[in-house]
Specification:
The protein is mainly α and 413 residues long. The two termini are 38 Å apart.
């Protein structure tokens, strides 16, 4: 258990370097720079960020454990198998980008457009930043993290929660340490007018996250859901613009009817369409698209049992559209010419197990291999021996060596 806790803490720290977390983490970095000369405020916001991370992690872990106790074989990142959750994340990220551009301000007067927050509002914002960071971190899986999460899902609830808490503490540790130790904060540049430009620039990674999530939603729920979320994005942008006008009018002592209109637009034009997303379904699985996937054999436990041990290695790619690490590995390793040549040379049977949408067989396989989430790469030797689990971060050499070893094992037999 102590090893799993240590692995979870280390994996949480490494998770800060994953691309899916950068858009949100950059907001916290901006906050730390702003409080460069205010140690007490920096410490308070560091604790608020830590609290948001830990509470949200425990809520996600609790929901995950309850779902598994109820018989659902779900794993880490399970909430991103819901089109509704993805749609809500799209709108939250878009609203954050519009806020960074200065279209409207949350809890601030328009005279303080260059700031992110202060006082109680700043603490609330830090806590919400921590919560959002954990939610968007689930598509990524860092080294040491998968084994820790997989172990946690096989343990009693208290042990599981302790491991997930360690993961949250590791994730929040870098920013909390910087906020508590002025010597570390001195490496940060001093605040100034340049922060307004930086604030606007940080909106673009948020928009990048919006684009990625829209792509995931389309692959998960089809073109009708794509049209719906694009319409919702337009409505949200218009509502945010009206809200910004209301703030300016309030500063001048005028009636702020645009704020009420913005609220009405949000409720009447967005809530019903978002609620309907639960009924959308994509006509094809994400893994079934593309020339490379066309050569893949459909994965199922039954297919694996029927094929393994017949003199050919099997490579199973457990993946999902919302899994960033999976997509990177696909581009940098699995789809390279070197790996394709190795598959052809070794007569490897390539299978794709897609978990973009909930698939109980995939979730059960992840649990059987002791993994709490994606990605997972499994090579079955040609002689039908014990399958080999590859590292979460692949290189072409790792895959080629595994296939060669799986083939040589079959020849010796």
């Amino acid at each position: 258990m102590l090893t799993a806790i240590a692995a979870a803490f280390l994996g949480g720290m490494i998770l800060n370097l994953m691309p899916c977390v950068f858009p949100v983490i950059s907001l916290k970095a901006l906050s730390l720079i702003r409080h460069h000369d205010k140690p007490a405020q920096a410490r308070a916001e560091g604790l608020a960020f830590l609290g948001g991370v830990v509470v949200t992690m425990l809520l996600l872990a609790g929901a995950l454990l309850l779902a598994r106790a109820g018989g659902s074989a779900v794993g880490w990142g399970f909430q991103l198998q819901s089109p509704l959750v993805i749609a809500l994340l799209i709108l939250v990220m878009l609203a954050s980008a519009l806020n960074l551009f200065g279209l409207f301000e949350v809890g601030l007067s328009v005279q303080r457009v260059g700031e992110v927050g202060s006082g109680r509002g700043g603490l609330t914002g830090s806590a919400l930043t921590g919560a959002l960071a954990i939610i968007v971190a689930t598509p990524c899986s860092a080294p040491f993290m998968a084994s820790a999460v997989g172990y946690a899902l096989t343990q009693p609830p208290l042990v599981s929660l302790a491991i997930f808490t360690a993961l949250a503490l590791g994730f929040a540790a870098p920013f909390t340490l910087v906020s508590f130790f002025p010597l570390l904060a001195r490496i940060l540049p001093a605040p100034g007018a340049w922060m307004v430009t930086l604030k606007h620039a940080l909106a673009f990674p948020m928009l990048g996250a919006v684009a990625w999530l829209i792509w995931v939603l389309e692959r998960q729920a089809g073109s009708a859901a794509l049209a719906l979320i694009l319409a919702c994005c337009i409505v949200l942008s218009f509502a945010a613009w009206l809200y910004g006008i209301a703030q300016k009018r309030r500063m001048m002592g005028r009636r702020h009817w645009p704020q009420h209109l913005a609220t009405a637009l949000f409720v009447l034009l967005m809530v019903p369409p978002l609620a309907s997303l639960t009924s959308f379904s994509s006509p094809t699985d994400a893994a079934a698209e593309g020339a490379d996937a066309a050569a893949a054999v459909a994965w199922s436990p039954q297919n694996v049992d029927a094929i393994k041990g017949q003199g050919k290695p099997i490579l199973v790619n457990f993946t999902a559209s919302w899994c960033i690490t999976c997509q990177v590995n696909d581009r940098t390793s699995l789809s390279t010419q070197a790996v394709k040549a190795a598959m052809a040379r070794t007569n490897t049977i390539y299978m794709v197990a897609d978990s973009t949408k909930y698939n109980p067989d995939v979730e059960q396989a992840l649990s059987d291999f002791g993994r709490g989430g994606l990605p997972l790469y499994v090579v079955y030797p040609a002689d039908g021996g014990k399958p080999v689990v590859l590292p979460q971060v692949l290189t072409p050499r790792i895959v080629i060596n595994a296939l060669d070893h799986a083939t040589e094992t079959g020849k010796k037999t």
